[in-house]
Write a structure and sequence with these properties.
Ribosomal Protein S5, domain 2; 9 helices; 386 residues; 2 domains; 14 strands; four-stranded antiparallel beta sheet; alpha+beta; Alpha-Beta Plaits; 22% strand; 33% helix; binds ligand DP6
Length: 386
């Protein structure tokens, strides 16, 4: 590994990145909080915007309470995000009243999931039962775009709850403590959400080459990343915007007893090691090889599960072939990754944007649902909006 960065400009964000400085593992008991004084009358409003993220090394398979079977690595996006706002006040009745709105409207289906989540994490925020809450959440991307919103929504909510704790209890003053708890809490809602709390390349899961890494929460990759990868572009080719037939939750469960589970863990370790080196050295060949291998392995694991399933569409395969041919012809740094769905994330550097845009326009758009392509790129991480 090369030298650690100490706060520099990353991804064109023009801000000092936040990097955890702790090198010792933090256990869940560090995240406990306390009640607030009953005489304290409280009210206020908190809001956070948090991005979705795209994994390059895939989290696939979990055990216990949202523990990953392998370490994963992702970067946060810029244009695909959730904004969540919490209005809070001292409770008026014996029982606290918590309500959830999606895009300004009551949504009982989402509400029951959010209330169950608040109940599950109440040990870490005991003061929630002293407050009435109105939570309102909205996404920057259309519900039908086929972009998973669990990472951005759970991280935005977790960040709001940590800000609430800081305002009422004052126990999350230090950025390390604040972001680590937010990541831990987000993970309990959705595994991949814990990576959305940080900006730049982010790792979740124990990995022996990164002493600060943990299964409990994500950490920012704290080594200098080569400029080729620090402003990475992501054009999301929407092959289908329909809801997928098999949820990620069910897919993770099919990794229990999967015949290739052990080999997958070994593969992810090797790929992580290669990718971390490639990110520092600017090794685009290795980057392409690892990232496409991870995407195809993810889908191969689904196809070899019992029962088997596949989320890829005929147009996904056509697009993947075209990307490979385009790379061979132009010899530029361009590759794909896939989420748990048929849509293709086309990754490339900022310097090749004009050429890649032409390729998308002329050769790929025709294979997208309603010609939909969402232009995105590495973003600047979450931000507080109120
Ligand atoms: C393929 O984080 O959505 O996107 O923890 O059950 O909420 P839960 O799963 P989720 O799984 C994401 C899987 C993936 C790969 C990744 O993001 O690493």
């Amino acid at each position: 590994m090369q030298s650690r960065k100490t706060g520099h400009t990353d991804g064109g964000c023009n801000k000092n990145s936040y990097f955890c400085t702790k090198l010792t593992a933090v256990s869940p008991k560090h995240f406990l909080s306390s009640l607030i004084s009953e005489t304290q009358k409280m009210s206020g409003r908190i809001g956070w915007q948090s991005p979705s993220n795209i994994a390059l090394i895939k989290y696939w398979g979990k055990y216990g309470q949202q523990m990953p079977t392998n370490a994963s690595l992702s970067f946060g996006l810029s244009n695909a995000f959730t904004q969540t706002e919490i209005e809070y006040s001292s409770k008026e009745n014996e029982n606290a009243n918590h309500r959830f709105f999606f895009e300004g409207k009551e949504n009982k289906n989402f509400e029951s999931k959010v209330l169950k989540y608040l109940e599950d994490i109440s040990i870490y925020f005991p003061f929630l039962k002293q407050l009435d809450l109105k939570i309102d959440s909205r996404n920057s991307f259309p519900h039908s775009a086929g972009i998973a919103s669990s990472a951005s929504s759970m991280s935005a909510l977790a960040l709001c709850l940590c800000s609430l704790e800081q305002e009422l209890v004052g126990s999350l003053q230090e950025p390390d403590a604040f972001y680590t708890k937010a990541s831990f809490i987000a993970r309990l809602g959705s595994g991949s959400a814990c990576r959305s709390v940080f900006h730049g390349y982010t790792v979740w899961g124990d990995f022996n080459e990164l002493i600060e890494s943990s299964n409990e929460y994500a950490v920012p990759f704290s080594y200098e990343v080569h400029p080729l990868f620090s402003q990475i572009q992501d054009s999301i080719l929407i092959v289908s915007s329909e809801e997928k037939l098999v949820s990620s939750r069910a897919g993770h469960a099919l990794m229990d007893g999967h015949p290739f589970a052990e080999a997958r863990i070994a593969q992810s370790k090797q790929n992580m090691s290669w990718l971390l080196a490639a990110l520092q050295q600017g090794d685009t060949d290795r980057f392409v090889e690892v990232v496409e291998n991870e995407a195809m392995s993810l889908h191969a694991l689904m196809m070899s599960s019992k029962p088997w399933y596949s989320l890829l569409h005929a147009n996904t395969w056509i697009i993947l072939e075209k990307i490979r041919n385009f790379r061979e012809k132009t010899e530029i740094f361009v590759c794909f990754t896939l989420d748990a769905g048929p849509n293709v994330h086309l990754l490339y550097s900022l310097e090749d944007k004009i050429l890649v845009d032409q390729f998308v326009e002329n050769e790929l758009k025709a294979y997208c649902d309603n010609q939909q392509v969402i232009e995105d790129k590495m973003g600047c991480g979450p931000k507080r909006i109120f």
